[in-house]
Specification:
The complex is a heterodimer of chains A (271) and B (159).
Chain A lengths: L1 E5 L2 E5 L5 H8 L22 E4 L6 E4 L9 E4 L3 H17 L4 H10 L18 H9 L6 E3 L6 E3 L14 H5 L28 H8 L10 H4 L48
Parallel strand pairs in A: 1-5
Antiparallel strand pairs in A: 1-2, 3-4, 3-5, 6-7
Chain B lengths: L1 H11 L4 H12 L4 H11 L3 H10 L11 E6 L2 H5 L2 H12 L12 E6 L11 E3 L2 E3 L4 H13 L8 E2 L1
Helix pairs in contact in B: 1-2, 1-3, 2-3, 3-4, 6-7
Classes of the chains: A alpha+beta (271), B alpha/beta (159).
Chain lengths: 271, 159
């Protein structure tokens, strides 16, 4: 057993487990994106950053890849951690604003602006599909190719691979293409509508309208919110929310109360 | 053919991927789809792994290269001394952009970030031979010599 202190909680973790394992066991919330229980940890998305160490010598590490060590002091929600996560998320959303996973995460974290120019790409290079294909499907039909800004995930020579069984696991696990969010406001590329409890969500009615965003019967009175649907055949196409951006602070759901949650004792003070 | 080279190279390099790919690249001038598949097969790897490595390094090419490979250094020192003029002249004369190959498969024009011999910049490497202090006139002369088919000693520096 390895003794660690995580958010002020003394805990004896089994050897070989990661900080993320311990945090999950204790119910401490750490956002993750490129992590999946069935796959090897990768530490690529940097959203699961936590602060380790004491005093002035603290540093940020990815909790999904950092194994527990004796006497480790971890803090999962300091200002430094949250600022770093928000920055990472901002960059990810600038890369791929149409990911519902990312938009939900942004709404949950309270990200209110994206300062970077949106690139509208379809891939965030989290590597989930590559690991899924290799580790769970044992196919390894896709992989990273090229490098730097030309990096992409593809089959060899961009042609159908003999190793691919068309199982669809890569699509299943993709956080960017499976759940599409077609609603982000082009001005700030943030949406967060689904997370903010607007019913029905895109996916509930998308089949009816054969589009990814069928927010037709939105109850404007009860929510004080409207929705934009890009499809021309839907009548109630544009209902402007009363002088507010889509993610108005007053009508959004309260964010998770991290500060007062049990076990969030924090030396630096959260936010 | 490919398989003989691979088998031979795999034994000599203890089954290491990159040296095997280098030998194929050297022999054929590029890595064909068949060659990549064959390498994966022989070394017991997946094609996507081999492709990932081969596409990562600019030393490997998936398209056939010309008989003569002209590399222009575009590093900082060469750049400020006018390497772009050499690139312009070569592009114009050969009718190709950097990275391209002439349709008759005679010339491939490449640019690189730095060759490490900044003192003799701008540097143009033709078939492994380094030519330093390349003025536009010298570039034209070099191209003329290459077209005439003058034998060039490999890895020799010519300032």
């Amino acid at each position: 057993m390895t003794h660690i202190t995580i958010d002020g909680i003394d805990f004896d973790a089994s050897k070989g487990s990661t900080i993320l394992d311990v945090a999950k066991f204790l119910g401490l919330e750490i956002p993750t994106l490129c992590y999946d229980e069935g796959l090897s940890a990768w530490g690529g998305c940097r959203l699961c950053l936590v602060e380790i160490g004491t005093g002035k010598r603290t540093r940020l590490v990815s909790s999904c890849t950092y194994p527990v060590e004796e006497g480790l002091v971890v803090r999962t929600a300091t200002k430094r951690v949250i600022d770093a996560r928000k920055m990472v998320l901002e960059l990810l959303i600038a890369q791929c604003p149409t990911s519902k996973t990312l938009q939900d995460m942004a709404a949950k974290m309270g990200l209110d602006k994206v300062r970077f120019k949106p690139k509208w790409e379809d891939c965030i290079y989290c590597g989930l599909c590559v690991r899924m294909c290799e580790e769970q499907m044992n196919a390894k039909a896709i992989g990273f190719a090229n490098r730097g800004e030309k990096l992409k995930i593809t089959t060899p020579f961009n042609i159908n691979s003999e190793d691919c069984r068309k199982c669809g696991a890569c699509i299943y696990i993709c956080p960017a293409c499976t759940l599409r969010c077609d609603g982000p406001n082009p001005e700030n590329v943030l949406c967060g509508r689904c997370y903010n409890d607007l019913q029905p969500t895109c996916l509930d009615v998308s089949d009816d309208y054969n589009c990814w965003m069928g927010l037709k019967y939105l109850n404007v009175e009860s929510t004080g919110f409207g929705a934009v649907c890009p499809s021309p055949h839907i009548e109630a196409s544009f209902i402007t929310p009363p002088n507010s951006s889509r993610r108005s602070k007053s009508s959004s759901l309260p964010l998770p109360d991290i500060q007062n949650a049990p076990g969030y004792g924090c030396e630096n003070g959260v936010r | 053919m490919v398989s003989t080279i691979i088998e031979d190279a795999a034994v000599r390099h203890h089954g290491l991927l990159i040296p095997v790919l280098q030998e194929i690249q050297e022999h054929y001038g590029y890595l064909s789809e068949e060659a990549v598949k064959e390498v994966a097969n022989k070394l017991g790897m997946k094609i996507s792994d081999v492709y990932g490595v081969a596409s990562f390094y600019t030393a490997f090419s998936f398209t056939p290269k010309g008989k003569h490979i002209i590399t222009v250094c575009n590093g900082t020192a060469c750049h400020v001394r006018g390497a772009s003029r050499a690139v312009d002249i070569l592009s114009e004369e050969l009718g190709i952009k950097p990275g391209g190959t002439t349709p008759d498969m005679q010339f491939t024009l490449e640019t690189v970030a730095c060759l490490g011999c900044c003192a003799i910049g701008p540097v143009v490497v033709a078939d492994g031979k380094y030519h330093g202090n390349m003025t536009p006139a010298k570039v034209e002369k070099l191209l003329l010599n290459l077209r005439k088919g003058e034998s060039i000693e490999k890895d020799k520096i010519c300032v």
